[in-house]
Every structure is written in C-alpha cells, then in structure tokens.
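Running this now, will post back.
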Amino acid sequence: MTKSSKAAFGRNQKKSTTDYHATHSVRGVAGTDDTDGKSKRDRSNPFHISAIRAIRGSIFSAQMCHVSTERSTPNSFSSTHAFSLVEMIVSVAILSIIAVITFRYIAAASETYALLSAQREVVGETATAVSSMRREIRTLQTPLTADVGEFSFVNQDGLTNTFRLNGTEITLNGYTLARNVTSFTLAYYDATNGLLSPVPLDSTDLALVRRIGVDLDLSKGRGHTSFDANIFLQTGVRK
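Update: finished.
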C-alpha cells in the first residue's frame, strides 16, 4: 500500500468513527438502550450532556404549555357553549306560547266561576222567596184575592197577608222576598186539579182553591233561573 493510499484510508476510518459516535449520540438522546461501552463513554461527553439538557428543557417547556392549554380549556368550553341568539329566541317563543295557554285556561276558569256564582245567587234567592210563600200560604184561613200576580188571604192569627209583584220585586206586605224578577205568575186549581178561571177569581171560585201554581223567573247579571212550584193549601195547619 502506498503512502497516499494509507493517508486516504486513515481519513476514511476517522470519518467513519466520527459518524459512528454522532449516530450513537443521537440515539442516546432519543432514549434508546445503550449497552455497549462506547455509549457509556458518550454519556460523559460534554457535548452529549448539553444536548440532553437542551432536549429535556424543550420537553419540559412543551409539557408546561400543554398543562396551560388544559387549564384554559374549561373557560373555552363554557364560552363556546353559551346561549346563542337563536336559542334565546326559541326559548322566548316557547315561553310565550305556554303563557298564552295558561292565561286562557285561567280566564276560562274565572269565567266559569263567575257564571256559577251568579247562577247560584239567583237560584238561592228564588228558593228563599218560594219557601217563604209556601210557609205563609199554608197558614191560610180565608182567601181574599186571587189574581195572576197577586194573592191575599187571612191567616190563623186574623192577619192579612198579601203577595204581590211590584215592578221587579216580589213582596209580602211590603217586605221584599225577591229582586230582579222578570216573570211572576200564579195559577189556581181546585180539588180535582182543575184550573180555576178567569182571574181574578170570584168568591165562589176562591172557596174552591186547593192548590196554587207558582211560575217565577229571576235574572241577575249573568245568572238566570226559572222556578216552578206547587203550594197546597192546608187550612188550620201551621208549617
């Protein structure tokens, strides 16, 4: 081998050795297992130690950035999941529909309650008036007048009682029994249930009266009722 050939061979061998150490140095930084003696010697190389420290610093910085990103994630999540304008409009529309339905239901219930209250009031007033008439007429001793809208008689105490329609009121001796009366009609029947007519009855027909039919209509506000009753005469019996 010539001197030039030996020199070229020496340079190539030195270059190969340098490449070999560089390659194993990179592998050691990447974390591969070094079991040979050369790798152990590479770890004591100042350049190798500086490279490892630089890489570890870069990894630590990357991990810290990742932690910072994860800590900021909840705020980003909450901000990206807030109510949008469309969602708010839809919510307001749904609530408006529910409010309208609820208002109509409450209004209908109030309307029904007001109607029933007015109806109950006129029915109670009508029943009270007819009950008072029945109680007084059953004390009849002698009939005096029997007309379509008036009936008077003498009771067991010798007092004269008169039921009369005055305008829109039914009165007993001037005392009001019912108001807001739209119709008050009296009909008179004998013992055979025959209708006595014409009215006002004369003295002969007055003596034959055994039953009085009462037709009474009341209307007050939104309440209206029609009441039909039969009052049977029981002379000498107070009830």
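The two ends are 159 Å apart (CA to CA). More later if anyone needs it.
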